[in-house]
Amino acid sequence: MGVPRLAKVLGTAVGGLGLVVALAGPAAAKGPQGLTIGYPGGGPPVDLGGDGTNSQMGPLTEQLGLWSAFGDPEVTPLTAEPPSAPVGQPYTVSWTMYHGGTADGGALVITQRLYLDPDGGALVYTEAGQDAGPYAEGGTRGGWFQAPASLEATLASAGFDPAASPPAGPAPAAAAKATDVAAGDQGTARSWLAPVGLAAAAAVGAAAVGAAGVAVRRGRRERDAAPAAG
To answer: Can you give the residue ranges of every domain in the chain?
Structure first.
């Protein structure tokens, strides 16, 4: 085989391999890239990782009904009504999903409400119509999902403890601003109190000097006016 033809064959092979890699990359990266769970009442959510860094990510997609929200026919569908009454206040589940439809890879965020029943009957609710990109045309399905009793154990293994206290967040911006304002006011107070204090001290000093001068002059007049001793 001549050198020109060999180069052409190698070029075609390399080009084809590049195309395969380019197509396989996004396909392999599809799915959840992150998962956070927020406690009822707010506060910073707990980051459970994603993109292959947490071995429990796969089980959690099933146990929280993520694929059911996408309308996957091979999994349990969502129901319009919960199988039992939700218990307590909901936790906020946020899935960050790979989305290759943008130049930077992009991301979609799917949120769910998780009701944890101490007896193991956890319920998950997904709002309908959330942008699901390539996962579900027309957005997410809406409805309720009955989580398995093993969900809490899976959450604990993934690094989320429902019984723990919510993580402490940074000081609210309003409080920080109030602190800054208070500090600024104190600085301003010091800036004008200093000259006022100096002026007051100078005035007191001047008054004292003046009074001393008057006393000296009065003493001299009294001494001059006194009769000479015989």
So the answer is: 28-158, 171-217
